[in-house]
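Bump. Still looking for Cationic amino acid transporter C-terminal domain-containing protein structure tokens.
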Amino acid sequence: MPVTFEERAPATEPLIPNSPEPARASAGFLYRNSSPRTSADPSSGSSESRGLFHALRRATSRRKPLSKTMMQNELAATRPSMAQENEDSMLSFIDLLAIGIGGTIGSGVFVLTGDVQPVAGPSAVLSWLLAGGTCLLSGLSYMELSARIPARGSCYIFAYTTLGELAGVVGGVCLTMEYGLSGAGVARSWSDKLAALVHSNLDTEVSSQISLDWAATALQIMCVSVCLMKLELGKKVINTLTILKVTLVIFLILAGLVPAMLYGAPNYPNVFLDYDTFFPQGIGGTITGASLLFFGFIGFDEVCCLASRAENPSVVMPRAIAGTLFGAALMSSLAQLSLSYLIDYDTSGDDGQSFEDAFDAHGWTTARYITAVGEVCLLPLVVLVSFIPQPELLAAMSEDALIPSLFHEEDKNGVFWKGGALAGAALVVVTLAVPFEVLWNVISLGVILSFNLTNTSLIMLRCGNGGKMVSNRSVRFWAIMLWAAAISARTYFSWNGAIDECLNGSSDNVNWAQTGVGIAGLLGTVVCVVMIDRNRKDNMDRKSGEGEEAKVFCAPGVPYTPGAAILLNFFLSAQFSGQDHAIFGAVMGVCVGGYFAYKATHHFAKRGKEDFDYEEYHKEVEKEFGQCRDTAVLGEADRGAGS
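Sorry for the wait, here they are.
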């Protein structure tokens, strides 16, 4: 049966003749008529249970070929909606860097610098660098994968291509936590700062645990509206606000460092006086601070979700990710050092003090007012940037038939308006009514899991299946064992067993039995990485594609670098409580359960005898796609000649 591509098929026409499946934008899934796998009538009472079993089996075994993802991107570029977009709708290196830094340094400098001060003291400067270094290890994986797979979806599409459909869904849920929910939390933090500035209560208390935050809700509605009005307006606003935000952060840095260098003690503490002054809680406090500051780097991978809109993504994406990480780490650590000079650790209190409190303590009323107004004006940028990748992520999942098709329907401007509006409405409700303190650590756990999915995706891409439908079972087995060993090493067996006690100068209360389990997990991690290297297949060269001269960034030390990142990420996740892990598991369970329910009751039951077949259609799709691409190029040439 021939496969027919259409440049812009109506939503009611089948992509394949004699198939009831509507055409999907960007060359979505292809289906064919095939013999039924069971003798059961799809409308019978047992179809749902069979569909659920079938969904579970396919979710754990099905992957999306890398070549198909690349063909989707190329075919999407030939559609009229994409051809009509001008250069302003594409994202340059500066645009992506502004999105990354704009969404990263806000919550870090304005909020976390004060929160980490009681935990690590002046050594929180090293906590920032340690957290940034850990993110950099994972960032190397993002750099290479975003260059090789310049498609919207970030961790979702990376995991779906190399690990399987279920891993992709888990990655999509983690990214939704990172983007949508974190933006809602920042909106409520912004509302608190606004209330303190105007000396008024801006929310309505429903109970002791729940309050309706109207100011945060209004901000969320505004940010969603800006994004849905089209990306050109959004990126102009982002670039302007990012420049202003960086200016404010530089002001905070200079306000603390310059007076401390000019006047010194006794007006300003000498944070480098001795070991006890710089490490008041020991090295263990510094490491604990790093786990708390991990949230300050959330957002550097947001640019990956916008890879399909990037100019020359194989070159621009790695630079944008690296620039975001280095910029955020440098500014955040310098701001932390500035705050350490402004506030003595002994007087900071258990809850910590912000820059506004520090300026007020020194009698700098003007500086305090500038900081308070600046934060209120610039924190909305974090909310705006947090929402930008959400419609792109949902569109990618919708095109792969994992969620309803309306999420990838575009308007005439190329904006996923319906999906973005639904996602925005849900986030507005969350912003209005959900206290965010409970979910803050849960979001960090989701980000850590998405980092490790990305690291594992790079291992499989470079050493395992290479994004193809073949599978290196040895590498796959050792990758699974790597996760098991790393999780064993990161649990309380290791941290509560010895590390916390030893780093703080005491080994009297060490539980050596628990420590042994942690050491065994650590050694097991090393063994697994070595075995992956011994069984690897070099599937990727430095070319981003056939006929391209540009070289793709390659992460160094694969599989050892992503293996170390997986271990460190799981180690940081051990700092969160069992309650945080339980809430995260419940949220993930609900979302994944909804995915299985949709697949069982809609995807399979609706089609009955139709089913998806990557392997059988792979070569035929490539052949027909080449014809479609040639036709699109000729049509574009004819239109150019006619004009």
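DSSP finds 25 helices and four strands in the chain.

Edit: fixed formatting.
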